[in-house]
Amino acid sequence: MINKLVEKIKKTEAPIVVGLDPMLAYVPEHVQQKAFAQYGETLEGAAEAIWQFNKEIVDHVCDLVPAVKPQIAMYEQFGVPGLAAFQKTVEYCKSKDLVVIGDIKRGDIGSTSAAYAIGHLGKVRVGSREYAPFDEDFATVNPYLGSDGVNPFIKVCQEEKKGIFVLVKTSNPSSGEFQDRRIENRPLYEHVGEMVAEWGEQCMGDSYSYVGAVVGATYPEIGKVMRKVMPKAYILVPGYGAQGGQGKDLAHFFNEDGLGAIVNSSRGIIAAYKQDAYAQFGPEHFGEASRAAVEAMKADIQSALNQK
Q: Residue 52 sits in a domain of what CATH number?
């Protein structure tokens, strides 16, 4: 799957992943009301609203970007109906030939970690049959429990030719409370990055590993360091736009060939119609606003890479 991701990035010339993180407050009123008319102001109604919201955005951006990243918590908050909307979203995005990164941030050990890996990336056996429950192409993984938590995912990746992105240096302000702690005179995130490189050697694609890393756009100098620590790992870069990351901050995350990283934007794209820059589209044309936001992001990143 890493080979497909790289090829789609080359084809679209857009190292961008759209974060499908639909808070109900992002969903325009007319979409909510239509869903509530059918299902009432219920969990089912909320799930239908976010599903229709996602579908509209995907329809408007699927030809521009290689990948999407639904954040499962935004669906879980609506219970079982929300998870059904998550599954429909994954299936729909795959039908549009988009690479799907399940932002699940799982981290456990033994059979529990294996169950997470199977549920999201692998196949589960039921009697004489096998099923792929959520069937994302990649998943995000929390490495805090060490190799015991990551190896079950790597095993499934090897079997299914899928991938993971391991949290290394996250974009949130308090990430340094743990991740910047110095061990043997180096920050913890560098040690984690070295483990990512080591894990990645077990499952290589044509040019990059199936084991990637998450490094926030809000720490561009760290991106420069981690690019060297993990030369064969694709870097998923959150924190663009709403969290403060800009194109000029991103060049160091990429290799000289312009590959090696993919940048995430969530509310900056899916809620673009709420921004002054795209207000002319209005809530009725929120999908068009999202498309315009993707085009602006693509131009911003390409400008930064051209100046590298």
A: 3.20.20.70
- At 148, which amino acid appears? D
Q: Which residues are catalytic?
A: 105
Residue 200, classified by CB atoms within 10 Å of its CB into exposed (0-12), middle (13-18) or buried (19+), is: buried
Q: Which residues of the chain have a pLDDT value below 50? A: none
The span from the CA of 245 to the CA of 37, in Å, is 39
Pairing state of beta strands 163-169 and 211-215? parallel
Q: How many domains does the structure of the chain reveal?
A: 1
According to DSSP H, which parts of the chain are helical?
2-12, 29-39, 43-61, 73-76, 79-95, 110-121, 147-160, 176-179, 188-200, 220-229, 267-270, 286-306
Phi, psi of 91 (to 5 degrees): -65, -40
* Beta-carbon count within 10 A of 143 CB: 19
Query: Residue 96's domain spans which residues?
Result: 2-306
Phi, psi of 142 (to 5 degrees): -90, 120
pLDDT tens per residue, range 279-306: 999 999 999 999 999 999 999 999 888 8
Helix, strand, coil content of the chain in percent (nearest 5): 55, 15, 30
Distance CA(29)–CA(63), nearest Å, equals 26
